[in-house]
Amino acid sequence: MSAAAPLLSVNGLTKHFPLKGGFFGRSTGTVRAVDGISFDVAEGETLGIVGESGCGKSTTARLLVDLIRPDGGEIMLSARRLGVDLPLRDLRRNVQMVFQDSYASLNPRLTMEEAIAFGPTVNGVSTAEATRLAHELLFKVGLEPKRFAGRYPHELSGGQRQRVNIARALAFKPKIVILDEAVSALDKSVEAQVLNLLGDLKRELGLTYIFISHDLNVVRYMSDRVMVMYLGEIAEIGPVDAIYERPSHPYTRALLAAMPSMDPDHLTREAPLAGDPPNPINPPSGCRFHTRCRHAATVCISTPPGLYTLPGERHLVNCHLAIPNSGHPGIEAVTA
Ligand code: SF4
Fold it and tell me: Is the pTM of this model over 0.90?
C-alpha cells in the first residue's frame, strides 16, 4: 500500500435529510444519515464498508459521486479540494459507481455497445472512438464483443449485465470505482467470477475500490482496510486483519459474531446483535451504540467517544473501552 498522500480524503462529511410533515410541509425531524465522518483511501487499495442497513454506507457512496450533495465536510481527490481546485466534473469522471441492481442501471433501449460508449461520447469522444473503446472494454470484462455488443439488457444474465455496468464505469477511465452491493444480487458462483474479474481489473488498471457490502466474508476477501459504520458514524476502521482478528468495537465484534465460523480459534464470545438499530432521526446520546451494547457505562450515555487511534497500526475505534482515561470502568479488563 502506498505511503504517499491519500488518493481520496474525506473530512467531516455530513448529510442530514429533513423530514417534512403536516399541512404546511413543516420540518418534523432530521435523519442524520451521515454525521461528520472522516477517512482516507490510499491509491491502489480497497476500502470495504460494512454495517447494517441504514448505517449510512450507501449515502456515503452517493455523496462521493455527487448523486446527492453533502451538508458539510470536504472531499479531496489527489490533494485537490472539491469546489476549490477540484471541479465537480473531475470528481464525477474520476469516481465511478456500480450499483446492486444491474438491470435498473442500464437503459433498456440502448445496446451494450451504446451503453458503454454513451459516457465518452457525451464527454466529447467521437462515436467511432467510443465504439472502439466499448468493444475493448467488453473484451476486458469477459464478454466477447461480437456476441454482446448489439444485445439489449433483457438479453443478458444478471452477471453479464453487471460486467457491462463495470465496463460502463471504466469507460470514464476513473481512479476510483465504488462498488455498492455490486455482487449482492448474483448467484454465489457468478459472484465469485465477478469478484475475480474485479481483482484482475484492479491489478491491470491500477484501480482503487470502495467496496460496500453486507456480506462480511466477501468484504474480507476483497478489502485491504475495512470501515464499520453505525448510525451515520464510523464505529471502527483499520486493516482488514485487525478488524477481523482483533476487532475493538463491541459493534464490530457483534457483527462478526453473527458470521458462521468453523475455526475454534476464531470463535467470538460477543453476543450477536439483537434488534434493529435505533431511529436515526433521534440517535442515542453519547455513544450511538449504547442502547445495544452490553458494555455500556454511564460515560457511554453522556459522552461521544470519538475516533481513537490504537497503538501500532492505522486502526481507529470509536469506543470508550479502547480510550485510556475515558472514564469507562471496564477499560482495564478489556484492553489488558
Ligand atoms: Fe459500548 Fe460504551 Fe463502547 Fe459505546 S462507548 S460501544 S456503549 S462500551
Answer: yes
